[in-house]
């Protein structure tokens, strides 16, 4: 079925540089495909280093004026951008489901979620306060102001094609920075549509730029160009580490939202039905393709049988299909390669002794569809325990004591999201403080919103997105010593 939008001008085919829609210098293009059908949605400009350098130069020029725009006026532009995103929510959601595969209800939800960051940071623009600090002697005072960090580059993934950009562009613009965005090649259409709406909202030419194409060439230009002062990245840990290394010679600031290996812990005293609801949503949202998806489900002895029986039943009832169709709750994985990577982890773990309680292989729909899967008898040496799965696969691990489960939960290089279910207030504090994670969901399976600081510890990265802290990644503190008073 062809994609029909009520505003067809939101479907873009070119890069957006300095307020203009442009082709690649060499005229190169690449195809954007629908993972549910394999159909090509459109071809778009495939840019490289030279176009990226021009986008960075344009961002630099534009920032000189943008940073001087009063905070209240910047806030009004962001507010307008938010309004336009919500006005076009349905078109943006249709575009997203077409290029990414997630079910349409989730796409609608993501547009609202992404827009909420734009609304939030517009409000925060007016609260980038400094301090006056007592001086070291009576004739001196220390004054701190916060200034925009400089030209920002954002490299974003395909799993949240809108929100991962909104979470970066909104605080950057609020702080007075300009931005060059490189979206994932699987999902550039959402990014380009956002740029179109930013322009309509009154974002001046050059303040927002979008370049899609060769990741290595665009990435190399972004990381080596001294004009870029900050790189904000969401994606895999190996690429994040490489980008940090590439940023070192020019000493850019970096924010890294990388992989996760989230534990989801169910204690004997948990409300089991509520834990099932939380596990289903935190595991299977976006077909398991989020960095905060539950990756290992730990269940205590006393409730193990009950939880597993209910969880397996609920998993087996999930409807898999084209995300655009009503009633579907699990769409395809983003590519066949992604599906094969998930299957490899599952088959390796089965060979290592995991038992299949539901699913266990590719879906009969073919393509990149995968069966919602539950594996039991999982141990800490197995592939599904150690790796971020990024698919609808639930490894279940049995445990007996708090000490044992904390040790297993923390036995990973990652530290992004974690979840646990208990009704005991002492245990709530003990476990929450003992988990080496940036985010803890307590009796909740959905943890992200614009008011909260999202981010990880250990190899899950650095920096926080959202909340009053989210602006900190986009400002520098300047200290002025005022003497002779
Ligand atoms: P994922 O597993 O989510 O695809 P990646 O880290 O591969 O995670 O991709 C996240 C983003 O990083 C995408 O925009 C991708 O194009 C980009 N990317 C991948 N390789 C590179 C690279 N060598 N340099 C810069 N960006 C890259």
From TrEMBL:
Gene name linked to the record: gabD
Keyword tags: Oxidoreductase
Record Pfam families: Aldedh
GO molecular function: succinate-semialdehyde dehydrogenase (NAD+) activity
Annotated GO biological process: gamma-aminobutyric acid catabolic process
Protein name as annotated: NAD-dependent succinate-semialdehyde dehydrogenase
Xref: InterPro entries: Ald_DH/histidinol_DH, Ald_DH_C, Ald_DH_CS_CYS, Ald_DH_CS_GLU, Ald_DH_N, Aldehyde_DH_dom, Aldehyde_DH_Superfamily, Succ_semiAld_DH
NCBIfam families for the chain: SSADH
Top EC class of this enzyme: oxidoreductase
Active-site residue list: 257
């Amino acid at each position: 079925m062809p994609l029909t939008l009520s505003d067809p001008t939101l479907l873009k085919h070119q890069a957006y540089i300095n307020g203009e829609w442009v082709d690649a210098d060499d005229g190169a293009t690449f195809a954007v495909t629908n993972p549910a059908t394999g159909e090509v949605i459109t071809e778009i400009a495939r840019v490289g280093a030279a176009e990226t350098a021009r986008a960075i130069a344009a961002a630099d020029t534009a920032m000189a004026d943008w940073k001087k725009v009063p905070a209240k006026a910047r806030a009004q532009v962001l507010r307008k951008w938010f309004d336009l995103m919500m006005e076009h929510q349905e078109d943006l959601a249709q575009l997203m489901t077409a290029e990414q595969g997630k079910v349409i209800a989730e796409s609608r939800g993501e547009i609202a979620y992404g827009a909420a960051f734009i609304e939030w940071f517009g409000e925060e623009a007016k609260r980038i306060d400094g301090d006056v600090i007592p001086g070291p002697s009576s004739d001196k005072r220390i004054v701190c102001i916060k200034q925009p960090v400089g030209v920002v580059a954002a490299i974003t993934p395909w799993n949240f094609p809108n929100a991962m950009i909104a979470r970066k562009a909104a605080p950057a613009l609020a702080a007075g920075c300009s931005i060059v965005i490189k979206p994932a090649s699987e999902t550039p259409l959402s990014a380009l549509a956002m740029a179109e709406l930013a322009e309509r909202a009154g974002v001046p030419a050059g303040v927002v730029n979008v370049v899609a194409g060769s990741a290595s060439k665009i990435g190399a230009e972004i990381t080596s160009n001294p004009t870029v002062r900050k790189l904000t990245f969401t994606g895999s840990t190996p690429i994040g580490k490489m980008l940090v290394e590439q940023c070192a010679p020019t000493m850019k600031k970096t924010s890294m939202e990388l992989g996760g290996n989230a534990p989801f812990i169910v204690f004997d005293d948990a409300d089991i039905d509520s834990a099932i609801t939380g596990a289903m949503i935190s595991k299977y949202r976006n077909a398991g393709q989020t960095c905060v998806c539950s990756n290992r489900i730990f269940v205590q002895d006393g409730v193990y049988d009950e939880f597993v029986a209910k969880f397996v039943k609920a998993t087996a009832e999930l409807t898999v299909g084209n995300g655009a169709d009503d009633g579907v709750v699990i769409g395809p994985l983003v590519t066949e390669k992604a599906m094969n990577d998930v299957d490899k982890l599952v088959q390796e773990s089965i060979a290592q002794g995991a038992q299949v309680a539901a699913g266990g292989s590719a879906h009969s729909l073919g393509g990149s569809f995968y069966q919602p899967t539950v594996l039991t008898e999982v141990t800490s040496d197995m592939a599904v325990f150690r790796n971020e799965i990024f698919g609808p696969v639930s490894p279940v691990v049995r445990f007996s004591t708090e000490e044992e489960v904390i040790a297993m939960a923390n036995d990973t290089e990652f530290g992004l999201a974690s979840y646990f279910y208990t009704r005991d207030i002492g245990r709530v504090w003990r476990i929450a403080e003992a988990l080496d994670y940036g985010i803890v969901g307590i009796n909740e399976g959905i943890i992200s919103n614009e008011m909260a600081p999202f981010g990880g510890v250990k190899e899950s990265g650095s920096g926080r997105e959202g909340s009053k802290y989210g602006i900190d990644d986009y400002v520098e503190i300047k200290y002025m010593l005022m003497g002779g008073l």
